[in-house]
C-alpha cells in the first residue's frame, strides 16, 4: 500500500506536520531530479549549511526552457515570517551564497516579487505518492495559475500527498485533490485559508500549527490576518500557545502524543514509525 493511502486509512492527522523553516530558497533547475535532488544540484556543503541555519532549499521548475546547467536560472528568497519574497537571476550556481541568503536582509538578495507562488511536490524519485498525486494536482493548478504554479522537490510529508505550498506565507496544505487546488489557490489570493486541509505554517512550530487550526474552527476564522502568534511555551510533551485575535489573547494547551500503530511513513522506507502529533489538551 502506498504511504499516502495508508496514512488516510489510519486517519493520521495532517495538522502540525510542517517542518519549521522561516526562510525558503527556491532554485530554478530543469535537470532530472533524483532522490537527493537538492544535494545533487547545489552540493553537499551548501545543503549542510542550509540545514544548520534552518533554511529550506527547494528546486523548482516549469517544463519549458533548456535543461542546460549553464542556462540562466531564477533564485528566489522567501521569508515566511515577514511574508516577503524577492528574486534575482543568476548564470551559475558558483555564486550562490546559501549562508548569506539565510542571514542577510531579504531586500538585499533581489527584487521584490509581486503576487503569490504555489509549489507542488512531484519528485517521484523520492516518493511515488508525490509523482502520482502531485502531478495531477499541478496539471489542474497550472490551468488557473499558469504564471504562479511551479513543481518542486521533496517537501517532507509525502504521505500527505498531494502537497500544496502557498508562498510567501509558507502555508502548506495536504491531501489536495486536483479539483481542490485551484480553489485553495484562489482563496489564498483573496487572503483566506481553509483549516480543514491545513498541514501548517512553516514559520511556526508544530504545536502552534495545530493550535491555529483548532482556534480557527472554534471561532470560524477564515482570513489569514485573523490570527497572530504571540508565544509558544513548554517542553517536549506539553506546550501553551498564545494567539491574538481582534485584540483578545487566546491560550491553547497542547500535548504531544504518538500516533499508533507504527507505520511506514514513506513508500521508500522499511522502518516503522509512530509519528508524534500535537493535540488540544
What does this protein structure show overall?
- With 281 residues, this protein is α+β, with helices and mostly antiparallel strands.
- The model has no long low-confidence stretch (mean pLDDT 92).
- The chain has one domain (1-204): Glutaredoxin, CATH 3.40.30.
- The protein has a ten-stranded mixed beta sheet.
- The protein is globular, with a radius of gyration of 18 Å.
- The two termini are 32 Å apart.
- It is built from seven helices and 14 strands.
Task: Offer a concise description of the structure.
By secondary structure, the chain is an alpha+beta fold.
**Can you write the helix and strand succession as a string?**
HEHHEEEHEEHEEEHEHEEEE
What shape does the CA trace take?
A: globular
State the fourth-level CATH superfamily.
Glutaredoxin
Q: In the CATH hierarchy, what is the class?
A: Alpha Beta
What profile does the largest beta sheet have? 10 strands, mixed
Cross-sheet strand order for the largest sheet: 5-4-3-1-2-7-6-8-9-10
Proportion in β-strands: 25-35%
Instruction: State the domain count.
Output: 1
Distance between termini?
A: 32 Å
Low-confidence stretches: none
If you consult CATH, what is the topology? Glutaredoxin
Amino acid at each position: 500500500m502506498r504511504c499516502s493511502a495508508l496514512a488516510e486509512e489510519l486517519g493520521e492527522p495532517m495538522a502540525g506536520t510542517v517542518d519549521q523553516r522561516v526562510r525558503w530558497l527556491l532554485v530554478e533547475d530543469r535537470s532530472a531530479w533524483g532522490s537527493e535532488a537538492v544535494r545533487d544540484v547545489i552540493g553537499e556543503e551548501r545543503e549542510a549549511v542550509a540545514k544548520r541555519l534552518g533554511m529550506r532549499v527547494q528546486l523548482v521548475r516549469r517544463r519549458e526552457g533548456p535543461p542546460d546547467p549553464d542556462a540562466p536560472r531564477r533564485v528566489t528568497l522567501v521569508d515566511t515570517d515577514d511574508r516577503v519574497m524577492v528574486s534575482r537571476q543568476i548564470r551559475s550556481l558558483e555564486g550562490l551564497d546559501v549562508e548569506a541568503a539565510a542571514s542577510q536582509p531579504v531586500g538585499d538578495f533581489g527584487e521584490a516579487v509581486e503576487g503569490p507562488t504555489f509549489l507542488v511536490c512531484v519528485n517521484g524519485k523520492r516518493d511515488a505518492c508525490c509523482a502520482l498525486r502531485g502531478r495531477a494536482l499541478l496539471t489542474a493548478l497550472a490551468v488557473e495559475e499558469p504564471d504562479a504554479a511551479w513543481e518542486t522537490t521533496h517537501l517532507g510529508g509525502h504521505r500527505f500527498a498531494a502537497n500544496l505550498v502557498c508562498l510567501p506565507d509558507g502555508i502548506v496544505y495536504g491531501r489536495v485533490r486536483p479539483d481542490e487546488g485551484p480553489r485553495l489557490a484562489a482563496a489564498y489570493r483573496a487572503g483566506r485559508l481553509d483549516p480543514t486541509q491545513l498541514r501548517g505554517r512553516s514559520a511556526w512550530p508544530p504545536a502552534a500549527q495545530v493550535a491555529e487550526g483548532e482556534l480557527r474552527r472554534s471561532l470560524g476564522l477564515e482570513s489569514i490576518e485573523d490570527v497572530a502568534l504571540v508565544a509558544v511555551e513548554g517542553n517536549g510533551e506539553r506546550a501553551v500557545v498564545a494567539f491574538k485575535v481582534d485584540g483578545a489573547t487566546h491560550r491553547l494547551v497542547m500535548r504531544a502524543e504518538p500516533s499508533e500503530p507504527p507505520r511506514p511513513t514513506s513508500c521508500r522506507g522499511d522502518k516503522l514509525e509512530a509519528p508524534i502529533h500535537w493535540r488540544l489538551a
